[in-house]
């Protein structure tokens, strides 16, 4: 019983720590809340089943590697579905933005500051959405997750040189989008 | 005065906004994430048997029994050892005898000569 708790507690803490960022990353890639939640679910199940016995230091990169792989699979499936729908002559369903995302945050004490930040966040979200998938992943893993080149290359399954290229292109594009905020 | 590099500034701000963006995902999403986490942990626990668990020992015991049965069956089904084929030993002697190889190559001719040679000689005498 003790061994189960020993194994479960750190894992629970780790998953609680990464689940929100993982969800947001999946949502940037899919632009759909439910699809993003499904991807997080698949990732968590696979991670716990396969890698929970690995050393704690490896968990972060392994978790994001699974997530990245799930996102890539999702994109491949979506691409096939789009082609089939186009062939059948049916219009593709547009991904809807999460309505909960735009709900006001009642916990914020300063509404005007909050509105500004919401607006700024909206601009950033749209800018990240507009990035190609690989650039998006390189940017989020490096700038948000704080991974180094080697870790990012492992997660993305490519060379460090490719990571550098994707990341610098992403930063360049984002700067273009956000030049009003960051001249 | 801000001496920070504009790129550094952008990255810091972006990180801050992204962090704030996940602070409040909404009750429905947060509940769902929590539910996913608990289910993943439970599934992992079911899959992870302890060292002394009954299931593990049943699996190990079953595997050992199946291996023993396979080995026994193999020995039981395999044919008994046969004596060495003697004919092959004679062939080996012929192959290894270098100096007499031409003799063995022409042996059919000698056999024919022996059989038909007498007849030829008889015919010669008669003529």
Structure description:
The complex is a heterodimer of chains A (about 180) and B (about 130). Chain A has seven helices and no strands. Chain A is an all-alpha fold and about 180 residues long. The longest helix of chain A has about 35 residues, at about 55-90. Chain A is globular. The model of chain A is unreliable at about 100-105 (pLDDT under 50). Chain B is mainly alpha-helical. Chain B has helices spanning about 5-20, 25-45, 55-75, 85-95, 100-105, 105-125. Helices cover about 75% and strands about 0% of the residues of chain B. Chain B folds into two domains: about 10-75, no CATH class; about 85-125, no CATH class. The chains are: A mainly alpha (about 180), B mainly alpha (about 130). The interface between A and B is large, with 45 and 32 residues.
The figure for the number of domains of chain B is 2
CATH topology of the largest domain in chain A: Rna Polymerase Sigma Factor, Chain: A
Helix content of chain A: over 70%
User: How many whole angstroms does the radius of gyration of chain A measure?
Assistant: 18 Å
Q: Termini of chain A, distance in Å? A: 58 Å
Largest sheet geometry of chain B: none
| Cα gyration radius of chain B (Å) | 45 Å
The number of helical runs of chain A is 7
Helix content of chain B: over 70%
Main interface pair? Answer: A-B, 45 and 32 residues
How many domains would you count in the coordinates of chain A? Answer: 2
Oligomer: heterodimer
Low-confidence stretches of chain A: 102-106
Termini separation of chain B (Å)?
Answer: 138 Å
Residue-averaged pLDDT of chain A: 84
Helix-strand string of chain A: HHHHHHH
Q: Structural class, from secondary structure content of chain B?
A: mainly alpha
How many strands of chain B? 0
